Amino acid sequence: MISGEDLKAALPSAPVRDLIEEINAPKIASGKVREIYDLEDSVLLVATDRISAFDVVLPGGIPGRGLILTQLSHFWFQQTKHIAPNHIIPNEAEILKDELKLSSDSQLRSMAVRKLKPLEIECVVRGYIAGSGWASYQADKTVCGIKLPEGLQLASKLPEPIFTPTTKASEGHDMPVTPEEAAEIVGQDVFDKVKAISLELYAFGSQLAAKAGIILADTKFEFGTDENGEIFLIDEVLTPDSSRYWDAAEYKVGSSPASFDKQIIRDYLESLSDWNKCPPGPELPPEIVAKAQSRYLEVYSKLVGAVD
């Protein structure tokens, strides 16, 4: 586990949008943020510093963002392995350093993982009402078909966390589905298992975040299965890009607290009158880049520092 100070010292001075070194493996895919390679018996996931907003990949990036998110996922995978097995392979460090001979920077932003079949749903757990959940609640007092109590306000804590799955879209936005619809997609047995695991992961993550003075409002988990049907936690886990984290000191029911994610960037882009949210995206001012980087590093340092 890398401390916040050590991670800060390892951040590059400029964003790594593409890999500096050649990886001697076939590239499977290139996403908005990640580059994915086939290692025969496993898969290499490398997080660049690219950043997207409103489904548009912006010029430049946030220096070290991919590195921070990868290390935070590593932290959570280690902390939650008693709840669910994850896709990190046991000899990952040896593969990154000795076999692939990656630089220190690339090692920190890479994960060597099992080859698994991803489930066709994403597993969202909400402990507070915000975002699309708040919009749905305002419309009919439900979220993904789950009836909620009357009288909730924006950012209200729910009586108990709820499991609100979505579809997993290869393009465009994921769409909310009812628990019954999700069970039809993956099968009732798998649905029951990932629901139970997701709720337990959320409870654990919330408790650890609370020690750091952070509220875990909601989060998204992804799972995959091996050839025997065993379920593994995959992708990224409990990062500020897959979760809504709030500073507990700033939390107030009835308003939306600032989150530890790229909200700084979205707010800046929303303030522009000459961008229609279509490619190409605008360049981000240095001060916005610095604030976003600082916010990512802050949540990492607080969460990792909360572990005894």
In short:
The chain is α+β, with helices and mostly antiparallel strands.
Q: What does this entry look like structurally?
A:
This is Phosphoribosylaminoimidazole-succinocarboxamide synthase. Strand 13 and strand 14 form a beta hairpin. This protein has helices spanning 4-10, 65-79, 92-99, 104-108, 131-140, 179-186, 188-211, 263-270, 286-305, and strands spanning 27-30, 34-38, 43-47, 52-53, 56-57, 110-113, 117-118, 121-128, 142-143, 146-147, 157-163, 166-167, 214-225, 231-234, 243-247. It has a domain at 117-250: ATP-grasp fold, B domain (D-amino Acid Aminotransferase, Chain A, domain 1). The protein contains nine helices and 15 strands. The strands form four sheets. Strands 7, 8, 11, 12, 13, 14 and 15 form a seven-stranded antiparallel β-sheet that branches. Helix 1 (4-10) packs antiparallel against helix 9 (286-305), helix 2 (65-79) runs parallel beside helix 9 and helix 6 packs across helix 7 (188-211).
